[in-house]
Amino acid sequence: MTLAIDGWFAIDDDGTTHLIGTTCLTCGTVAFPPQRGLCRNPRCEGDETAATRLPRRGRIWSYTDACYPPPEPYVAARPYRPVTLAAVELDGAGLVVLGQVKDLTVDDLAVGMELELVNGPLADGPLMWMWGRAS
Ligand SMILES: [Zn+2]
């Protein structure tokens, strides 16, 4: 199993996908992507963080069709097949995370709709976190 990005997400043996963020040990601010070193909170001088699994569900903040292939180094399918992207506000985390949407199109989506973290292969093979229908 090859992940598209090391250290940003994990897939358990049962296929459950988790985003990995960091929590500041001084003030509790949660960051994604994982942040090492100085805390992201400008009012905090903390410089130690711990890896933390983020909520796996959230609500759509925005979404779109990606009708044109992204620039390199992204490896697009040839011929290019448009993908659906969603920015999802994670439950209780105060973070919005962008991801490709799996098995749904923009016609299926609405702002505020609940989605769940899943995974799927990118065009060149490695697995990536994606957003899917909430079970
Ligand atoms: Zn902090």
* Poorly predicted ranges: none
Share in β-strands: 35-45%
**How far do the termini sit from each other?**
24 Å
Could you say which structural class the secondary elements and strand pairing correspond to?
mainly beta
DSSP strand count: 9
Work out the oligomeric state of the chains in this entry. Answer: single chain
Shape: globular
Task: Please report the number of helical segments.
Answer: 0
Share of helix, binned:
under 10%
Strand order of the largest sheet: 5-6-7-9-8
Please give the largest β-sheet. Answer: 5 strands, mixed, barrel
Order of helices and strands: EEEEEEEEE
**How big is the Rg?**
16 Å
Bound molecules: zinc ion
Please write out the topology.
Blueprint: E1 9-11, E2 17-24, E3 30-31, E4 49-53, E5 57-66, E6 83-90, E7 96-101, E8 114-121, E9 127-133
Parallel strand pairs: 7-9
Antiparallel strand pairs: 1-2, 2-3, 2-4, 5-6, 5-8, 6-7, 8-9
Bound molecules: zinc ion.
Brief descriptors of the model:
five-stranded mixed beta barrel; globular; mainly beta; binds zinc ion; four-stranded antiparallel β-sheet; 135 residues
